[in-house]
Amino acid sequence: MDTSNLPHDDSVEELLPQRSSLTDPLLQQRSIHLSRSSPNNTSQLAIIGSNLCPIESLDYELIENDLLNQNWRSLGKVDKYRYIFLKWTFSLFIGILVSAVGFFNNLAVENIAGLKFFSLSKLMDAERYWMAFGVFTGVNLLLLLSASAITTFISPAAAGSGIPEVKAYLNGVDAPNILTLKTLFVKILGTILSVSSSLHVGKAGPMVHIGACIASIFGQGGSQKYHLTCGWLRYFKNDRDRRDLVTIGAGAGIAAAFRAPVGGVLFALESLSSWWRSALLWRSFFTTAVVAVVLRLLIDVCSSGQCGLFGKGGLIMYDVTNDTTTYHLADLPVVILLGVIGGVLGSLYNFLMLKVVRIYGYINEKGRAHKLLLTSVVSILISCFLYWLPWIASCRPCPSTSNGDCLSTNRFRQFQCPKNHYNDLASLFFNTNDDAIRNLYVTGSNDFYQPISMLLFFVSSYILGILSYGVVAPFGLFVPIILTGATYGRLVAILLGSYTELDHGLVAILGSASFLGGTMRMTVSVCVIILELTNNLLLLPLVMLVLLVSKSVADSFTGNIYDMILQLKGLPYLEGHAEPYMRQLTVSDVVSGPLHVFNGIEKVGNIVHTLRSTGHHGFPVIDEPPFSSSPVLYGLILRAHLLVILKKKAFLPTCSLSANESAYKRFVAGDFDKRGSGKHDTIDDINITPEEMEMFVDLHPFTNTSPYTVVETMSLAKALILFREVGLRHMLLVPKSSDRAPVVGILTRHDFLPEHILGLHPFLVSSRWKRLRWRRSTVSKCFRSFIMWMAHSS
């Protein structure tokens, strides 16, 4: 929260107490007023999970001060080898733990949902239909309400998929409790309960958040509170190493969800990470390889039937290898058609989901009771829909390939049908989403589903996926989107009939790819995930084509779903490109609020008062006569470091330089290690006596002497690229001429947000970069022209 809680007073002198006689003549020079005294309050609160929370920025810049430099020089070869060893060891343990959690989630969901559906089948066989409806609805309500309750009361940050929060974290945004142990446990348990409740959601998205939490806990260096830490682990108590670990953990989460190791690496690279390098690629690939091996071992353990209902279905158990898969040049128009439909449906899906999430947000804001009430209403509504809709479908005899016994597997459900008959719509509704996808992907099953059943299931899947998201519980979007895409893929294949010879299961796979491309706008990672999921390399050209078409079409209408949720939540995500209007502005055009600076030798009272009256997290340090011939920028000091200094009470009785040796004796580098996500000391936690307020602090040993500075005339576009690529938290502005104060402003993440910039310069709105998108008026005009052309032709 780099610029929150700034004072609104027009006079900085009113904010700071009277300084000593040394600094009084230079008070006006040090307390520099910028052209705009109003603070930047853009996006300093964001929705994390389901609650509104204050947010802060991460600092990936290497801090260079006397104390830390001395510590670095004291490290030997053993320390460096230990650091490298720990990086690879952590990657190994992350892979093992993430794969174990992914396996456990599948095991739990399949057993809980399997028992529910087994009990339902028993009641249906006994023709106790109303009792079956009551049990089905009651169990679903209990499961989902339990997931919502633990999320609401224990860890609201665990709500949703967590992918937007992880993506924002890897972009440099920190928020309370998003990667804590409490959030991890709630995420695991809540995902199992919500996915088992027949809500139209999946467990793949939460696995990204789970993997990120596990990795972040490794990077926190243990717990000082419970004395579970050691000196080795402090190497990772910084934002740079934690960022790498979280990236690795997120990729491992996708690998565990789909048993797709290469797809997990590419997903982290394409969709999550804002910074990437070859060394990180190698460690991430190692971790996902560990995930694949451990999953294979765990699955083999359960192959003997010792894991209950596990192994009867589930995406990580899914292997399809069809050597007879063929396609011809004449089939390409069908693939292109699927891509176009997926792009249109995907963009509409994003648009409608955003509307529903916004409505749910208004309800959830009213309090915990309203969150639970909304969850109950949605659960009951969906349960009624799922139970009664299959009664519309007609019964069908078991396929000849099953020898008349088609009900012994998860593929078919008898529901209300006579013996040796199945209800095709119930076979999709009364299964986990993973098993429903397996049923749709199966090749050689062109006659298993009726057109009306496919149409009803597609409409239901499309609508229920939109209505499910936004409930306060942990779940994801991946699986329902894959399921919806597979349904309309089969529907298109059925409607085309003899016009295509493509197998319906193959078209279902292409439908999933096109819908993923239309909603999430991922291409390379989705392509590889689909191939690893289906184990069918022959699909590669078709999957590539359908993804390219669907993404291109969908980009003409809306943005991708995760970016839209990021914006809705208010997370200050910095894009990798600069808007055109940024080239018309300089960095000095967007700074706001008064700038607070400290002397190299500063009075304790001034520091305490400034920390209490502002929310700044970085302060320029200026050296003035007699410590320098003229005012000069010495560096930048962080609020967290000032709090450590005040807590240790490293004060001087007079305004004089202290020997660096005294700082080395009183402080160690570990005192300034970054604490875990969302954990911060405050100035109110420190007691300073009136006598100590009159003392002084030498800030030189603790000041970052090499902060990133730019001249005040640099274009905003150029500064944004530097800020984002380096991963800065603060950027100092220095004057172009030497006869002015040594620093004229400080930029943080919020100063680069379009909302802030266009708020200061509204005349630039018209020059904002726009995608080539179809507007409603354009679509209406094209539709009217088409109708008139058709009427004229007839």
From TrEMBL:
It comes from the Eukaryota. The lineage of its organism: Eukaryota, Viridiplantae, Streptophyta, Embryophyta, Tracheophyta. The chain crosses the membrane at residues 88-108, 129-154, 245-268, 280-299, 332-352, 372-393, 448-470, 477-499, 505-530, 537-554. GO terms for cellular component: chloride channel complex; plant-type vacuole membrane. Gene3D superfamilies: CBS-domain, Clc chloride channel. This is Chloride channel protein. The keyword Repeat applies. GO terms for molecular function: voltage-gated chloride channel activity. It is a multi-pass membrane protein. The keyword Ribosomal protein does not apply. Belongs to the chloride channel (TC 2.A.49) family. Its main location: membrane. InterPro entries: CBS_dom, CBS_dom_sf, Cl-channel/antiporter, Cl-channel_core, Cl_channel_pln, ClC. PANTHER family: CHLORIDE CHANNEL PROTEIN (PTHR11689:SF147), CHLORIDE CHANNEL PROTEIN CLC FAMILY MEMBER (PTHR11689). It is found in: Membrane. Keywords: CBS domain, Chloride, Chloride channel, Ion channel, Ion transport, Membrane, Repeat, Transmembrane, Transmembrane helix, Transport, Voltage-gated channel. Residues 703-763 form the CBS domain.
